[in-house]
Amino acid sequence: MPDDAILIGDGGLATELEARGNDLCDPLWSARLLVDAPDEIAAVHMAFFRAGALIATTASYQASFEGFAARGIGRDDAVRLLRRSVELAAAARDEVGATGRWVAASVGPYGAARADGSEYRGRYGLSVAELTNWHQPRAEVLAEAGADVLALETVPDVDEAEALVNVVRSLGMPAWLSYTIDGTRTRAGQPLVEAFAVAAGVPEIVAVGVNCCAPDDVLPAIEVARATTGKPVVAYPNSGERWDERRHAWVGRPRFSAQLAPQWVTSGARIVGGCCRVRPDDIAELAALVR
């Protein structure tokens, strides 16, 4: 992407699916609707595009061969569903006009497929080689499905980032690498300088940054990412609420504000949007302010 371009990302796909009355209480989370209600996914992509988003992030974050197999879905059908995630986003883009709009295929972390919250902890006990082998087949399918870029998102630690960098190098596919963080460290506790250094000098990684974090953590992370890699930065935090695993509910006060986005852009962010609990109205306000 051009270094001076500003792209507006979408918001919380699962949040909007739930707001439309869909039950996502399932290990596949939003990927369940690839099987049961693909039109709902397409409708949410359309809602974010109409709000001003220029990027649709696919419903493949929690999709995996193992997760589909647990539902009795074989490998060939799992490939078809992964491809469908890209096709739905692309169809929504074409419906509103493809010019200047992108499809980002979500490659969620290994912990997301476990559906136990471990993507917010990392340190799975797997080697970089094991994580590379796990991510490779899914990323290959998503890349071949016609996505414009791979979104390596909500990455909790450096080992998984190294694995994902290995994958995109082998594919020759452009990707952004986005960590979920707590303060100035990854969720696994590594300094962000160390985390972003994994992507420095890797041409396939076209942007680095943070997502699925508190809005307050974004600005310092942008500065570290830019200084460490010199690459464009991606920033799409949560609303500021926190997911309580025991209660299975969001708690705390929303702190996401579109008013923060111009400052992110000034500091070096070139893709800005939202993650969990960020709605189309939030993206519409953000888009208006940034533009």
TrEMBL record:
One of its GO terms (molecular function) is S-adenosylmethionine-homocysteine S-methyltransferase activity. Binds 1 zinc ion per subunit. Residues 1-290 form the Hcy-binding domain. Its cofactor is Zn(2+). Zn(2+) binds at residues 212, 275-276. Keywords: Metal-binding, Methyltransferase, Transferase, Zinc. It holds the Pfam family S-methyl_trans. This is S-methylmethionine:homocysteine methyltransferase. The gene is mmuM.
